[in-house]
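Here's a chain:
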Amino acid sequence: MQKDEFIQLAKKYAQNKCSWGEQQAVEEFFKKLQDNGQVIPYTFTDEKRNFLLKKINAKIGKPKKRILPLYSTALKIAAIVLILIGIPFLGNSLLKNENISVVAVKGEKKTIHLPDGSLVFLNSNSSISYLKDFKNSRELQLTGEAYFEVVKNPEKPFLVKTDKITTRVLGTSFNIEAYKNSRTKVSVNSGKVEVDIKEISKKIVLTKNQQLSFIAGSQAVLSKGNSEDFNAWTRNTIVLNNISLGDAAKILENWYDIKINFSNKKLKEMTISGKFKDEKLSNVLKSIAIVKELEIDFLTKNQILIREKQKK
């Protein structure tokens, strides 16, 4: 990363506009600056601090609202912007810990071997991101669904962050489903995990065959089930366990890269159960249609309409 690129990144950080990966890169840079003896001069008088704040505000184009706390991270990072302008850039030696992202699009699944030896099975329409120096941080960000087999390391917990929860483990296997605008679920196949739910400031410990379900604006629900069903998707098996037809449609959309519409909202509330291994989409939809007495119309190759069966 070049000097100008990092200056722009530091500005984004000061404005709280960084992605998770960018934030990690900036904070790691700041840490290494201090480790290498490049101390940021934030122990100055109020007069000097106010002068620096004016400079910072001018650089990031942000109106001054108040004096930031003396040890504000944003102040430190913005100070780096000013310092970088006047000192040799250390990016080549300090910013080797770049962010790595892996994406599985709809209709695709991926297996990721992490640097610490842990395995991640990434479901369709999902992504993870983590630092290249993963052995030291053992922390990653997840959007969508993934199954983890974590190598045990008591000294370095394994953290999985989503927009709603943080899951902490030492060594275990578990599944996290965290698609946007959907219920978040954490299921344990072996070992023990701790789930920190940000919205309700609550930590819940899960063990084998337990599943935690949470949706914004409601309480978390803890239930028991078959751990083999929780991660059946890793074996190309779709498990529909008494879920709404609307939720089943979302699973099929990700699995087969299609779009399912309903002729009316009432149909989405119907419940369905079933298990399909390595089945073609047409066979899955045919089974659902027979069980629920529905009609399936293929409008196009990827556009499907589910409607009520016409009475004769």
Remarks:
- The first strand starts at residue 99 and ends at 104.
- The chain has three domains: 3-94, 99-230, 236-308.
- Residues 37-45, 62-71, 85-95 have pLDDT under 50 and may be disordered.
